[in-house]
Amino acid sequence: MVLPRGPRAAFPRCPRRCSSPAMAFTFAAFCYMLALLLTAALIFFAIWHIIAFDELKTDYKNPIDQCNTLNPLVLPEYLIHAFFCVMFLCAAEWLTLGLNMPLLAYHIWRYMSRPVMSGPGLYDPTTIMNADILAYCQKEGWCKLAFYLLAFFYYLYGMIYVLVSS
Amino acid sequence: MSAPAGSSHPGAGRILPKLGGVAAAGVAAPAGPGPATYQQNGPAQNQMQVPSGYGFHPQNYIAPSGHYPKGPGKMTSLSLDSQHDDYYSGLYTVPTQNVVTTSTVNQQPGAQQMYGRVPPPASHNMGSAPESFQGAASSASHLHTSASQPYSSFVNHYNSPAMYSSVASQGFPSTCAHYAMSTISNAAQASVSYPSLPAGDPYGQMFTSQNASTVRPIKDHSFSGQNTAISHPSPLPPPPSQHHHQQQSLSGYNTLSWSAPGLLSTQDNPVQNHTGSLVTASNNPTNTESLACPVMQNVQPPNSSPVVSTVLSGAVSTRMSPATHHPAEPVASVKQPSELMQHKGVDSSSTTSSASPMPNSYDALEGGSYPDMLSSSASSPAPDPVPEPDPAPAPAPAPAPVPAAPQPAKVAKPFGYGYPALQPGYQNATPPLNSGVQPHNPAYSGFQQYAQYPGMNQLSSSLGGLSLQSSPQPESLRPVNLTQERNILPMTPVWAPVPNLNLDLRKLNCSPDSFRCTLTSIPQTQALLNKAKLPLGLLLHPFRDLTQLPVITSNTIVRCRSCRTYINPFVSFIDQRRWKCNLCYRVNDVPEEFMYNPLTRSYGEPHKRPEVQNSTVEFIASSDYMLRPPQPAVYLFVLDVSYNAVEAGYLTILCQSLLENLDKLPGDSRTRIGFMTFDSTIHFYNLQEGLSQPQMLIVSDIDEVFLPTPDSLLVNLYESKELIKDLLNALPNMFIHTRETHSALGPALQAAFKLMSPTGGRVSVFQTQLPSLGAGLLQSREDPNQRSSTKVIQHLGPATDFYKKLALDCSGQQTAVDLFLLSSQYSDLASLACMSKYSAGCIYYYPSFHYTHNPSQAEKLQKDLKRYLTRKIGFEAVMRIRCTKGLSMHTFHGNFFVRSTDLLSLANINPDAGFAVQLSIEESLTDTSLVCFQTALLYTSSKGERRIRVHTLCLPVVSSLADVYAGVDVQAAICLLANMAVDRSVSSSLSDARDALVNAVVDSLSAYGSTVSNLQHSALIAPNSLKLFPLYVLALLKQKAFRTGTSTRLDDRVYAMCQIKSQPLVHLMKMIHPNLYRIDRLTDEGAIHVNDRVVPQPPLQKLSAEKLTREGAFLMDCGSVFYIWIGKCCDNNFIEDVLGYPNFVSIPQKMTHLPELDTLSSERARSFITWLRDSRPLSPILHVVKDESPAKTEFFQHLIEDRTEAAFSYYEFLLHVQQQICK
Fold first, then answer.
1. pLDDT digits (tens, 9 = 90+) for A6-35
2. B899 part of contact set with chain A, CB < 8 Å
3. What is the C-alpha to C-alpha distance for residues B538 and B217, in angstroms, rounded to an integer?
């Protein structure tokens, strides 16, 4: 990756503590790189989510089909997010972990309160066209997209910081 | 094909000019002048031009052409002649049938009126009315054939059959109407065109018109006369312009026909001309229809042979049919509900027109179907007034002269100009009649002009009227002090409030029985709505059994090109050629065909057509509205035969009912039926025709269900009737010794799905216990100790999604699952109900059913089954609800699958299904004063026709909170709230839902108190329109679905919730707040007369024990149950006269019938109860409850104004609300 020098100067007071004097490829840096890649994937998930609900709202798709395509993606998304949360935990990146905890908790709550269904997933084709649920899901999509985008740059910064500072 | 032919003819030269004209002025088609020279030629040219001018027209035409294969053959004039012969023969045969039917029709009251009128005209014109009739009928049939519109032709045929068989009542009425119409037309103008219309719409019109019929017929005559007159007279020039328009639309036809017209011009070959025109028509798919008609007309005059002309006119009429329908509709307001209902008819499938470009899209489909709204009152009145004015002028002129046959022909030609395709035919037929008309011409033209704008005028006036009307403080805003008003309940039933619209719109508006809004004045903004704290939504009963329903057969179903709204009474006509959509405000062109009004036989009055005169109409849809050929009626019965089921004994009742009603099952000759039974295995029955007895096939592998044979499990009802009867006779005893207690419902349903998926249809599941084997097995979740808990009520939602998934699969294959649950213990209805909820089925629940121990339930099952098996049914339906831009659908309630934001997928639709829709206001409505809602229900009738039922509701927009409160429809609001509360109970909790209900009262009353009312806050003040709100909410809180603290079985509770979700408003209101009457002192005071019976109208009593006296007898109408409570000291005379027992003591504990005694009081009581029963589809069970009998708790739990151990009395509730408001 091309790493401009800027970050350190721009953010002199990074939350991360330096673990080693020389620039080194630490576990934390690995975590950030991994998170960076996975967040990119999550961004695509979020965009897909937004598009899917927009299609629903504009009548392009049948809710059954749409739920069938969306439901299998829910758990992977949650697991990916949970996975790098665990990675950050292992890397003792507390601030980053702390930033991700609300979303992790939300995911757990969301999945616990899902409607009765036998397969994995969240979305029930019989209720998804309800205007409240539709609006909620769309809002959720946008919020997640925003969160993942911010997180993406944060991880980028974090990775560089770790690399540079270590 | 036709076009080339036309070019070859001399007429070709003319065509060129027309084209030029088109280029010059696309719309005008005024070229009218051309007609004057050679009427036929002129018109033809004009027509041609017009099409070219209107790009869209040609497209439409093209589409139709594709549909009509016949056209090409007809093209050549020579061939035409031969064709004529063929047609005639064909027509004649058909006509004979028609004639017969007509005669029968005439017998009906409505028809009679029509008939009577007809004769006079006939005498004037032709001499023999009958001939004209026949001719008309035949012509209609001919036209149909020629036009290649299977529907219309079919319809006629069917109708006649229907007439014969009393069963098809709906078909009858409509047919009658058609016939009557045709007869009338014949008399006046010998115009068959009506008949053709009748095929589709005419029927409906006829029915409705019976009352008004006299007036309308006159009108028709006059109109026809006018038309003819116009054509005849030299005045032609003025009319031509209008005619031109029509011609333009037809243009494709015209060009083709042109050649024919030339022929026609020569009087010698009228017939040939007709054929030619027909041919041309065939060539131009869309146009053909219209063209054919005109041509026919032209031909007729020359021949002067009534029959021919009639035939032609008939053809015209068929094409014109939409227009004709209108007239009929208004007239028919009346009386033959059943008939209307049955419309069923006839249509085969051909589609027609060009109108809908996007056949395959769901949108297009949805557009088609609409429920039966026609209820009655609202729409009918409006039409009458409108038509009258027109007719009056017309009639006078018409009678006068009867021109010679040859003249008519000439005249006809000019006329043709004016009304190229459609009208010409009429005129031709009429020419004799027309003679009288000629004088009218001038008047007529003037009239037409007026006619063009009336729609606009109406709208604008209505707009103006709104504000004016609302200025004085309406009665509905009169403040009512709830705590001091002791008798809040009115003495008479509560009617739906009438929207504050001007009179014209009010008359046109949809009947509240079919379509209601919680707020009859829509707030301008969401902010205003939020301030009012009232729910905004619609209550729909779209497929209601209607007594009058205009049915429209038209090539083009006129819809907005951007939002696909169907044209409706609330659109505005900007000028004669354009209309503005009232939902999206797009300006659309009026198709040429629409310019002709078949009812009045006038051209250039699009606002007079039935679509624009009735807010509830039904269209016969073309193949554009089909994704596949219309399915046959398919019924599958899935029966539980485990030990439990055999013990309960429902099989006897079911099989008996089926045997009795086998012939009444809705359907046509393709109807299929099948049976499956299951316990721990699944049994199929091979009923293949030719077997000596039914063959039972057992599948014991319930983990992987398969069908033992691919076919012969669903068999044709008529081919295998004997086998079916054998099976039904044998079934009740087949399992009598069974020891199998398990129930493999899930696998049986999977098998049923496999069986049904190729066709779709209806699956009726009878279940008597908790499914205990295979997929979808359920565990008991009810804790009996929690039944009267005041805390958390659990398990209101499904335990598994198996049934929901199955329902969705079924819905995708157009299969609905209806559940009959007859169980004595907990059966987890919450889970089982999903199979019906999402497949648009219906749910029946018979707690503690036993055929001998519980005879009232057995009787109820019997009655329900009778209704269930014989009621109307629509297959593969979709319903779309559209509303004015700015409003949007929020949530839907009912049994269906929501397919997109405004589209409901309904595998089946039945007349007892109701829906509710929550609305939200997304954009401010400040720039409009009216909003409209339109539901379109597209369905396949049991006869295999694709139909669209459209209801349109128009409401004013208001900007002040006071006006919003003035327009509250409290019953609709309470029903919507009940639906929302059910959702809340399932998604959140019952206590949440109860709180929400109480808050709804508290919020709305406090909002009213703080914003509108200036009175002191010490009292609980409500506007008059809302005075029943707290009472109804209290009733809801004490309803089985929402009550707490009283022992309620979980299944009972869930069933009540299912009913709230799926019942139409009228039935739901009775369930929520029963009506109580005192019946021991019935008098004839204020009685109404129904069918020669005097029905007393006792005042409503409030639901409180304080109204019960020991000296009285009271009837409580709970919708599905009647209770008659007999006081201990009730007058012995009453007991003896009405109940047939000497005194109170001798009345038995279980009494479910009133004896037919020959005493005045018995007669009164019975006629009152019969009257109540007749007003609902399900015949309620009657319980006679003695005071002090154990059954009286059933009765007393409905006295919702009284205090119970767990709930407030009404007064306490008011105090509670007041307390909350003051907080």
1. 444 444 444 444 444 445 678 889 999 999
2. yes
3. 37
Do the Cβ atoms of B529 and B958 come closer than 8 Å? no
- pLDDT attached to residue B716: 92
Would an 8 Å CB–CB cutoff place B1091 in contact with chain A?
no
CA B1096: distance to chain centroid?
A: 30
Handedness of CA B787, B792, B796, B797 (dihedral sign): negative
Closest to B985 measured CA to CA, from B1119, B893, B1121, B890? B893
Q: Which of B797, B800, B920 is closest, CB to CB, to A131?
A: B920
Q: Tell me the C-alpha distance between B79 and B698, whole Å.
A: 61
Q: In chain B, which residues have their Cβ closer than 8 Å to the Cβ of A131? A: 888-891, 901, 918, 920
Residues of chain A contacting residue B900, judged by C-beta atoms under 8 Å apart = 56, 59, 62-63, 129
The predicted model scores a pTM of: 0.68
**pLDDT, mean of residues B576-605:** 84
Cross-chain CB nearest to B899 (options A63, A117, A124): A63
CA dist B984 and B974 (Å) reads: 15
**In angstroms, how far apart are the furthest CA atoms of chain A?**
58
Integer angstrom CA distances of residue A24 from A27, A153, A159, A160: 9, 21, 11, 11
- Is A129 an 8 Å CB contact of chain B? yes
Q: What gap in Å lies between CA B996 and CA B981, rounded to an integer? A: 7
Chain centre to alpha carbon of residue B31: 42
Query: Chain B window 823-842: which residues touch A at a Cβ cutoff of 8 Å?
Result: 838
B922 touches chain A (CB under 8 A): no
Residue A154's CB: how many other CB atoms inside 10 A? 17
Q: Is B812 on the interface with A (CB under 8 A)?
A: yes
CA angle B367-B589-B5, nearest 5°? Answer: 100
Q: Compute the count of residue pairs across chains A and B with CB atoms less than 8 Å apart.
A: 53
CA angle B373, B375, B376 (to 5 degrees): 135
Residue of A61, A114, A116 to mutate when probing chain B, most B C-beta within 10 A: A116
Q: Which residue has the tokens 């779709």?
A: B760
What is the DSSP code string of B710-779? SSSSEEETTTTHHHHHHHHHHHHHHTTT-------HHHHHHHHHHHHTTT-EEEEEEE-S---SSTT---
Question: Which residue among B812, B891, B903 places its CB closest to the CB of A131?
Answer: B891
Task: Compute the nearest-CA separation of A43 from chain B (Å).
Answer: 27
Q: B41: which 2 tokens?
A: 């030629």
pLDDT top residue among B366 and B946: B946
Contacts (Cβ under 8 Å, ≥6 apart) of B130: B99
> What's the token pair of residue B586?
């797009």
Distance from CA of A47 to the nearest CA of B (A): 21
Those residues whose C-beta lies under 8 Å from the C-beta of residue B1146, and which sit 6 or more positions away, are none
Which range in B167-181, B988-1002, B1113-1127 is most confidently predicted, on average pLDDT?
B988-1002
* Tens digit of each residue's pLDDT (9 = 90 or more) over B100-133: 333 333 333 333 333 333 333 333 433 333 333 3
CB-neighbour burial class of residue B789 (10 A; exposed 0-12, middle 13-18, buried 19+): middle
User: Is the Cβ of B804 closer than 8 Å to some Cβ of chain A?
Assistant: yes
Kindly report the average pLDDT of chain B as a whole number: 68
User: CB of B1209 within 8 Å of any CB in chain A?
Assistant: no
Q: What is the pLDDT of residues B874-896, one digit of tens each?
A: 999 999 999 998 999 999 999 99
Give yes or no for residue A49 having a pLDDT over 90. yes
Asked if B29 and B247 touch (Cβ cutoff 8 Å), the reply is yes
Pairwise CA distance, residues A40 & B761, whole Å: 48
> Which residue of B358, B839, B898 to mutate against A (max A Cβ within 10 Å)?
B898
The rounded distance, in Å, linking the Cα atoms of B759 and B850 is 35
Closest by CA to B883, choosing from B917, B926, B911, B906, is B917
